[in-house]
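Task: sequence design from structure.
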């Protein structure tokens, strides 16, 4: 209790605590980002084996044996290990950012280079989380905004890696947005429901219009659900901000990516990370952006 009072009364202490704690959260997000797609892949494999076992009885024994041998990866309880040599990572090797520096970016056992993305995600999580607390202060809004931030980081990276936004992430984020609206943390329940409906229907309409005109699918259904979640958290007005900001981010970052990777022009680019950027921007500066637009357009 004394610690909470001290954090409430001292903004620097609150920000430092948030930064350090969020580094740990970032480390956990790295685990989720890497292991959750593996868990999904195992589930798909398990379902396929069940289907094949029912359809091809002569393969049933072999498939059942494979199903028993291949265990789903535990997202929380399994020890972290080097992906190259399976070296079990010790506690001192798993300190966010610091361990990367101490190990000089290499596995202590096989000396394989550790990807920079791990410490970058940890640092990004800490920076964004600290700014959230700085922006909202000591409040329930800060707590809610932190959860939204962490969700968005995980969703962005999973979509970037797999081109899939898992329903378990997008739908739980949607329901969480509807749930917290009962306490009017950001918006009330009516605004939350309207925002969710508008978010889903807007991208759904764009998807089908694009498909009718080009015969191609410009985005996935996971994107609809993610924008619906953003609408559930922030309301109808913010849906427009999210779409505009995500489009701007997609145009800028996508153009840079295509320039740097000329051989990847025909490779699909996930839209989820840009929607996540737009949602976070709308959460922090949405009202300012809306008021600025109303002022310059003479509608205010």
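Answer:
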């Amino acid at each position: 209790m004394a610690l909470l009072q001290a954090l409430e009364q001292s903004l620097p202490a609150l920000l430092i605590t948030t930064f350090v704690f969020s580094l740990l959260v970032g480390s956990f997000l790295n685990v989720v980002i890497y292991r959750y797609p593996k868990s999904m892949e195992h589930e798909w494999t398990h379902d396929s084996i069940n289907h094949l076992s029912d359809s091809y009885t002569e393969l049933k024994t072999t498939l059942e044996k494979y199903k028993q041998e291949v265990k789903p990866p535990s997202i929380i309880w399994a020890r972290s290990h080097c992906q190259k040599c399976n070296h079990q990572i010790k506690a001192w090797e798993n300190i966010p950012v610091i361990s990367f520096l101490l190990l000089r970016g290499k596995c202590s056992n096989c000396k394989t280079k550790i990807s920079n993305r791990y410490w970058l995600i940890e640092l990004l999580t800490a920076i964004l989380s600290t700014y959230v607390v700085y922006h909202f202060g000591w409040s329930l809004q800060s707590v809610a905004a932190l959860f939204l931030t962490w969700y968005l980081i995980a969703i962005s990276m999973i979509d970037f890696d797999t081109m899939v936004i898992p329903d378990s992430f997008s739908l739980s984020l949607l329901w969480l947005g509807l749930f917290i609206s009962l306490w009017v943390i950001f918006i009330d329940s009516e605004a939350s429901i309207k925002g969710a409906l508008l978010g889903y229907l807007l991208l759904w309409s764009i998807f089908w219009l694009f498909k009718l005109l080009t015969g191609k699918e410009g985005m996935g259904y996971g994107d609809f659900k993610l924008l619906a979640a953003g609408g559930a958290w922030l309301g109808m007005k913010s849906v427009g901000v999210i779409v505009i900001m995500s489009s701007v981010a997609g145009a800028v970052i996508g153009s840079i990516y295509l320039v740097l990777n000329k051989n990847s022009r025909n490779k699909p680019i996930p839209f989820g990370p840009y929607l996540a950027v737009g949602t976070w921007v709308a959460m922090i500066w949405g009202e300012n952006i809306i008021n600025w637009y109303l002022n310059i357009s003479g509608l205010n």
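DSSP finds eleven helices and no strands in the chain.
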